[in-house]
Amino acid sequence: MAASEEEKRIARAYNVGTILSIYEPKLLEQIIRNNKNNAFVRTMAIAKDHNEFSQGIPRKDFNTEYKNGFNNAHALSKQDPKLLDKMLSSKELHNDFKRGLADGKHEYKIRESMNRMKEEREAKQRNIDKDYGIGY
């Protein structure tokens, strides 16, 4: 299945947000602050949050409950996505845990679409190489 234009746009925004959060965090903060309603910038902000979380940069909203939810969302997304959806709709879970689950699920979806696009690109390159006899 080919990646849609929307998935490509989200992957670009996520990559730009990650790179800017590493190399130009002040510039990224300024962009986010001045363009709150832009969907591309919102995805960049999500990438910034995910990068800060994975780098272990301390923030008040990255408490233990949030971290547990975020980390568990990856496993649940792979193994039992229906259970993850039920947990997100539950009213009995801690709010930070639910927020971590939601963010982890979103990050997992983005990573999966990026991996799928990468595999498609590599498959096309293998076909081109095979057609032209490159690498043999």
Which features would summarize this protein structure in a list?
80% helix, 2 domains, mainly alpha
Description:
This protein has helices spanning 5-23, 25-34, 39-55, 64-79, 81-89, 95-132. The protein has 136 residues and is mainly α. α1 crosses α3 and α2 packs antiparallel against α3 (39-55).
Secondary structure: number of strands: 0
The number of distinct helices, counting runs of at least 4 residues, comes to 6
Structural class: mainly alpha
Mean model confidence by pLDDT: 86
The helix-strand sequence is HHHHHH
Number of domains: 2
Q: In whole angstroms, how far apart are the ends? A: 28 Å
Q: What percentage of residues falls in helices of 4 or more residues? A: over 70%
Shape: globular
Main β-sheet: number of strands, strand sense, barrel status?
none
Rg from Cα: 18 Å
Runs in which pLDDT lies below 50 for 5 or more consecutive residues are none
Strand percentage: under 5%
Region (Disordered): 116-136
